[in-house]
Design goal:
- The chain has 300 residues and is an alpha/beta fold.
- Helix content is 41%, strand content 13%.
- The protein has helices at 17-28, 50-61, 76-90, 113-143, 158-162, 168-188, 205-210, 231-238, 277-290, and strands at residues 8-11, 32-36, 66-69, 95-97, 150-155, 193-201, 249-253, 256-259.
- Strands 3-2-1-4-5-6-7-8 form an 8-stranded mixed beta sheet, sandwiched between helices.
- Helix 1 runs parallel beside helix 2 (50-61), helix 1 (17-28) crosses helix 8 (231-238) and helix 3 (76-90) crosses helix 4.
- The model is unreliable at 40-48 (pLDDT under 50).
Length: 300
């Protein structure tokens, strides 16, 4: 038996890349999987159900259970219907893996309103809609006296934790996702729901284009950028074994696994009264001298 035997898992953006590996890995561990994807291109254009259906067939060929879902993750009504479809098809829902996303990389001063809105819409609102409907279902179950052991697994990014040159919209959305995870964990724990996030580094359509040398496949040996390296962590987070872990952001790349240490209160000075403008400079200099330096923005 796998560690997710009998659990029902909904994976967004599951037709390709990391999401595909998540869906297959969950199925291997006994989960019934909803493979969500609208089949868009890297920049969000186009659409189709073919790739999701292929993943479903691969799971079924391996003896697992899966269905395809074509909901737009940033559409409130479509994601509500997606939760309903899952409940009708499998009789429950235990795990939401928010993975879907795309990029439209631009330097900040060149980013258009349309590009900004599109990226923030699919990443940040896309992490809200499905999880919001799922959480409402789980809360209702909890209030009805039923045991809930549910998971929200979000996908942030190193770009969201440290920033990345040329990716202001993507980085801002991914930073928002990390904070959303903390709030979900704090608010939803009472209902039996955990929320954690991952910040993965792996070969995808997005990273191959931006970091081609880093993401190149090795001729032999361990392929550190294989997207399949990310999924064991996500599968464990989706299992019953992880019920005591919530509100965390994990970074994972190849065989390296770490817990991200986020914003926290640092050194402080208390004057005991209002600061004068001409006193601030020396105070800031003192504080920065005591503070742990921030990590460098990617690309600098």
């Amino acid at each position: 038996m796998g560690i997710c035997e009998g659990r029902v898992v909904f994976v967004t953006g599951a037709a390709r890349g990391i999401g595909r590996e998540h869906a297959l890995a969950f199925a291997r561990e006994g989960a019934r999987v909803v493979v969500n994807d609208i089949g868009v291109e890297l920049d969000g254009s186009g659409g189709g159900s073919g790739p999701a259906g292929e993943v479903v067939q691969e799971i079924r060929d391996g003896g697992g259970e899966a269905i395809a879902n074509g909901a737009d993750v940033a559409d409130w009504a479509q994601t509500a219907d997606a939760v309903k479809q899952t409940l009708e098809s499998f009789g429950g829902l235990d795990v939401v893996v928010n993975n879907a996303g795309f990029v439209r990389d631009r330097m900040f001063v060149s980013c258009s309103e349309e590009e900004w809105d599109a990226v923030v819409q699919v990443h940040l609102k896309g992490h809200f809609c499905l999880a919001r409907h799922a959480a409402e279902h789980w809360r209702n179950e909890s209030k009805a006296g039923n045991t809930v052991d549910a998971r929200i697994i979000n996908t942030s990014s190193g770009a969201g934790l440290q920033g990345s040159i040329g990716q202001s919209s993507y980085s801002a959305a991914k930073a928002g996702i990390a904070t959303l995870t903390l709030i979900q964990a704090a608010e939803l724990g009472r209902y039996g729901i955990t929320s954690n996030a991952i910040a993965p580094s792996a070969r995808t359509r997005m990273t191959e284009e931006v970091f081609s040398e880093m993401m190149a496949r090795p001729e032999d040996g361990f392929d550190a950028m294989d997207p399949a390296n990310i999924s064991p962590l996500v599968v464990w987070l989706g299992s019953a074994e992880s019920r005591e872990v919530t509100g965390q952001v994990f970074e994972i790349a190849g065989g390296e696994l770490s817990v991200a240490d986020g914003w926290r209160s640092g050194p402080k000075l208390d004057k005991g009264g209002r600061w004068a403008p001409d006193e601030i400079g020396s105070a800031v200099s003192d504080l920065l001298g005591k503070a742990t330096p921030a990590q460098k923005v990617y690309g600098t």
